[in-house]
Amino acid sequence: MSFQQTVGAALCCGFNCNERSRHKAAPTVIFPIISLSIVVGLVAGCSKSSETSVEESAAEVEAPTVPQTSWSMTRGGPHLSGNIAATVPGQMEIAWTFDAGQMISAEAAVLDGHVFVGTEDGLFFNLDLETGEEQWKFETEDAITAAPAISGDLVFLPSNDGQLYALGLETGEEVWKFGVDDKISAAPVVVDNPGGEGQWVLMNGYDGTTRCLSAVDGSLIWSYQTEDFINGSPAVVDNQWVVFGGCDAQLHVIGLEDGTLVHKIPNDSQIVSSIATYKHMAYSGNYANQVVAFDVDLGMIAWVYEDRNLPFNNAPGVSDDMLFIGSNDKHLHAINQETGASVWKFRTGARIESAPIVFEDGLIFGSGDGRLYALNLDTGEEIWRLDLGEGFIASPAYGYGVLIIGGEDGTVFALKES
Questions:
Q1: Of 166, 356, 344, nearest to 274 (Cα)?
Q2: CA 109 to CA 116: how far, in whole Å?
């Protein structure tokens, strides 16, 4: 690794990886959305044949079924795949916006009519999924730079004040909290207890420690110590391994049941974001301007992808045969999972720090140029774009047919298919 790469990585890992220069896009005029409903009145005494005709006509114009998918934790679930079992939405439009008052760099969570999102001034909001109306808010003592996780009637919120808060989903009241000696800038992940009943919360801290907590009361079940900061979330592979990268330039593979070390796989530089996994493979960008594929089972690197002298510092998304990751070179890169060969690249107007959501036939991601892009998975051809007028660092979330993303100017956008 060059001296320039080493210095850049040290700056990122030694301080706050979210303290970056911001790309501002010129705002566009957004017209209000008008929803038109067709009301069919049935007059008393209509003939049977008329009733049948009306019912058949109503069936012909019935709206398509909205996919009942949720986004209850970062990257869609414990595998951190960023993959969702739904077709990519067609051209989207704004359903509502919410002014959170401060920059949003954290991904949202979406579940059962709720949108949960935090801001860089430490405010955490529960919004109504359909209307965007505030249901409650909770204040922490420092920035919120990572997504919450939801399980049952609890919301698990990480904050840079060094606390993981467990909040009541309906009330926002604190149920318990777990404190560490440094910020928590990685999103927690909720998993089932592999050896019995209940659920566990996995969390990585900037103190270099991975912890497993009881979801019920926050009691510590096990911990694992690394030698440097951890910025990314832990992923779960094959329901037996916890996998993550760190600023010690290692991919760590530890046992889910007890946190014991299985493998440490070195690579050329610090891993400053969350990884993505597919089957027994893990994928990440690093600060040596590489994308690296790790074989978790064998404990070795499978391949390394390099393109230009700019880093990949966000999380990838994966499909069945490709992975997709944005870069500071302003491109989204599509890479063959098996070989590491480039499949296609798509250029935007600014660097890409927003991780993609991968649908069955397309993907959606945000760029620092203030736009959302939808692309074809196989070819990288643009399906649609939407200019929202402020840059994006936060990754999108998707649930129940609604895409949620927070902007650098503090706007929460809810988008639905036109």
A1: 356
A2: 5
Q: Give the end-to-end CA distance of the chain in Å, rounded to a whole number.
A: 47
- d(CA 117, CA 138) in angstroms, rounded, equals 11
Judged on CB neighbours under 10 Å (0-12, 13-18, 19+), 3 is exposed
Residues pairing with 276 in the sheet = 283
pLDDT in tens, 346-396: 999 999 999 999 999 999 999 999 999 999 999 999 999 999 999 999 999
Query: Nearest to residue 318, comparing CAs of 279, 366, 265, 375?
Result: 279
Q: Which helix (H) or strand (E) holds 8?
A: helix 3-14
Question: What is the tens place of the pLDDT at every residue in 85-96?
Answer: 999 999 999 999
Residue 271 DSSP symbol: -
> Whole-angstrom Cα distance, residue 242 to residue 210?
9
Name the phi and psi angles at 301, rounded to 5.
-80, 135
Whether pTM exceeds 0.70: yes
